[in-house]
Amino acid sequence: MTASQSSAPPTADLLARLAALLGPSGILTDSSDVAPYCTDWRALYHGRAAAVLRPAGTAELAQAVALCAEAGVAMVPQGGNTSMVGGATPDESGRDIVVCLSRMNRVRRIDPLDHTMEIEAGVTLKAAQDAARDAGLMLPLSISSEGSAQIGGVLATNAGGNNTVRYGNARELVLGLEVVLPDGSVFNGLRRLRKDNTGYALRQLFVGSEGTLGFITSAILQLQPQPRAVEAALCAVADASAALALFAAFRDQDPALIQAFEYMSGAGMDLVTRLVPGASLPLAEAAPAYVLVELATPRRNADLRAVLEDVLAGMFEAGTVSDAVIAESEGQRLALWKLREEHAEAQRRAGASVKNDVSVPVSRVPELIDRASTACAALIPGIRPAPFGHIGDGNIHFNLVQPEGMDPAEFLAQDHRIMDTVAAIVRELDGSFSAEHGVGRLKPYMMPGWRGGAELATMRRIKNAIDPRGLMNPATLFPPAG
Ligand code: 2HG
Ligand code: ZN
């Protein structure tokens, strides 16, 4: 039984009332209009939904939610539909209603003295970054899907990404939040305060809740000064241990300069340069692994280039780095980032892949990569490990591409075997089975083993207190009770 089967199917009367409330541009019921909202980016899940609601504002959403709640109908929030774990896809029952906040897409206000931005859930992360930049500031959150991912989903999943090493996850940027709760009432916590000790920090409950507690409708985010200097380099290294030696050398110079520190395996880079149009390696030879490092500072007259060259020279001498290219222009910097950001797309083009979005203490990343590569090769001969990710914060995407020529479905049928093998190693290294993508529909089965006992029981109690009928994103996060 899927979770939604405990909810009621939407009746024609409910759909008519929703249509009257939201108007023609606020509801889709035609199956061809609804279909794109029922499949995830990875095409792992193919759900069905009775309708897609597209409210124009918080008041409208709140009324729509109240109507659905009264009718006992389940709701699935969806932003840019970029989830890697099926966290925004309705289940197969056809009872869910998808709710999409993309029409709520205004940057309401940027305060240059407070360094804050008040923003609606449907703004894409890229548009939010651009708005901050136009105001001379920076929204320090960057993920590969930022062109499509929307603020509501970014916050609901506590996105991490490339700049966590310096600025933390999405959670750290949230000062205030407005949320429509599962009964249609509105929690207005849109405060812009740095200090506000008034009991439980409710806003943090919704950040990372994966849409299981309500709809994030708008937020106040903490901004940073715009960097005055940025330098990026792609470095060839032998392995993850060398990558960490390089990380330590930059940190030793000045940890506050490191804006991103990303790892890529040779296998992953090879897929990018072969399968993504316009991507090419700007080094003379391919290497076993690569680091993309970005330094940035808002300080005037900081000679970042000197710091970069100085550290790299020392690392060449020590034999830690065998080759490197420094971006000489903004275009070159973006080309280096393309090599990193297209990893997910390249792996999609290479066939089926199993993703392990895991984290371990930074010091244990080399052991993770070594042990998991060996274990997966023993499991499925010909499997292609292509690990990459945010090594500076310990989050590695230990992704595995199917063996050449294998039937993709046959490979995907073994996803739990592969995920469990990697997870067992991650556990021994004191890590987490879900670092930044969330649990979604892919990993609830892992929750009892990893977060069982009092932890999962407390999460269930919180869920029951806020959403007693289990109407919010029912197939996500929690395994069926039993
Ligand atoms: C990234 O870091 C994203 O590019 C996607 O988190 C990771 O494809 C993936 O597993
Ligand atoms: Zn990532």
From TrEMBL:
It comes from Gluconacetobacter liquefaciens (Acetobacter liquefaciens). PANTHER family: BLL6224 PROTEIN, D-2-HYDROXYGLUTARATE DEHYDROGENASE, MITOCHONDRIAL. Keywords: FAD, Flavoprotein. This is FAD-binding oxidoreductase. Gene3D superfamilies: 3.30.465.10, 3.30.70.2190, 3.30.70.2740, Uridine Diphospho-n-acetylenolpyruvylglucosamine Reductase, domain 2, Vanillyl-alcohol Oxidase, Chain A, domain 4. GO terms for biological process: respiratory electron transport chain. Belongs to the FAD-binding oxidoreductase/transferase type 4 family. Residues 45-226 form the FAD-binding PCMH-type domain. GO terms for molecular function: catalytic activity; FAD binding. InterPro entries: FAD-bd_oxidored_4_C, FAD-bd_PCMH, FAD-bd_PCMH-like_sf, FAD-bd_PCMH_sub1, FAD-bd_PCMH_sub2, FAD-linked_Oxase-like_C, FAD-oxidored/transferase_4, Oxid_FAD_bind_N. The keyword Ion transport does not apply.
